[in-house]
Amino acid sequence: MRLLVTANHTPFIAGGADYHVQGLVAALRRQGHWVECLRLPFHYGEAQIRRQMHYVEGLEVVLPNDVRVDRVISLQFPGYGVSHPDHVVWLMHQHRACYELFDADTATPALTDLKPEVEAFDNRHLAAARRRFANSPRVAERLAQFNALHAEPLYHPPHQAEHFTCADDWGYVFYPSRLEPLKRQTLLIEALAECHRPVRLLLAGDGSQRGALEALIERRGLQERVALLGHISEAEKLTLYAHARAVAFPTHDEDYGYITLEAMLAAKPVITCSDSGGPLAFVRHGQTGWVSEPSPQALAAALDEAWAMPGRCQEMGRAGREAYQAQEIGWESVVARLLAE
C-alpha cells in the first residue's frame, strides 16, 4: 500500500512523540509498504494554530503529484484535518490547552476565542475518520468526554524496548523526563523532604524548571539526596533503569507515558499518582508499583515503603515485566490494527 503518515514537527523540541512517529513509519516499511511521512511544522500561539488548521484543511493528499495515496494515518493535531476517503486516526492527544488543561479563570482572551474553533475542527475531522484509535485509554477517555467520539486504545512499545534489562540495585529512585510543570518533579522533591528514610533520587532531563528545581533542592537541604543529571544518552538511560530500585512517574494526566513501560521492561516498580492518567492503565497498586495521592506526604509514604523493601521492589518489578509481556505490545500488532479493512 501507498501510505501517508501525518504528524507534527516542533523545531528544537524532541520527545516521545518523535519515537512514536519514527517507530510507526519504520514498522510500516518493514512490512513492505511504501510510506511517506508528512511532518507539519507546529508553532504554539493562537494565531499560528488558527493558520495551521486552515492550511491542513486545504492540503491535497489523495493524489499528490499524481501518485495515489491508498490510506492516510494521522497521529496529531492539526494534521488529522487532512481529507482522504480512507483516513485512519491514531490519536496521540488533542490540543490540550483547549481541553483538559483549559482554565476559564486564567485563560487569555486569545485562547478563549480559539477554544471553540479547535473543538469544531476536531468534531468535524475526527468524526469523519474511517477509524479512530488512541494511544492510551486516557486519550480515548478525553475524546469521549469532550467530543463524544469513540476511539479504540492501541498500545505501542517504547523506543529500544528490546534493550531494557534489570541489574543489581544501586540504591536510587530514577525519574527521566523533561523538567516541566506537568511532569511534577517539584512534587517529587517535596515528597523526598517528607520521607523518613534516606531515599536517593536521580532526575534526568532538562527543561524550563531546572533553575526552580535547583533552588528547591537547596532550600530543602536535599543536595546530598537529589541529583539533576541533565541530558543523558540512550545508553546511560538504559543503565540507570537497570540499576534503579524503583522508577518514579508522578506526572499530571499523562497521555501514555513511555516511562511506565520502560520501567516495566527493566523489571522496576513504578511510583505514580492517582491523577497521573496514562500510567494508571498499567500500574497496579501493591502489585506492580504504588499509586499515591498527589500530595508530598502520600508520595513520601510510597517512597519510604519502596526504600525499606528492596526485595519487595524486585518482586513487583518482575510482576510488572510479566504484565507487560502478557499484553503482547508490539509494532506488528499495531500495524495489523491500523491496516485492517
Automatic annotation (TrEMBL):
<dbReference type="GO" id="GO:1901135">
    <property type="term" value="P:carbohydrate derivative metabolic process"/>
</dbReference>
<feature type="domain" description="Glycosyl transferase family 1">
    <location>
        <begin position="172"/>
        <end position="322"/>
    </location>
</feature>
<dbReference type="GO" id="GO:0016757">
    <property type="term" value="F:glycosyltransferase activity"/>
</dbReference>
<protein>
    <submittedName>
        <fullName>Glycosyl transferase family 1</fullName>
    </submittedName>
</protein>
<dbReference type="InterPro" id="IPR001296">
    <property type="entry name" value="Glyco_trans_1"/>
</dbReference>
<dbReference type="Pfam" id="PF00534">
    <property type="entry name" value="Glycos_transf_1"/>
</dbReference>
<keyword id="KW-0808">Transferase</keyword>
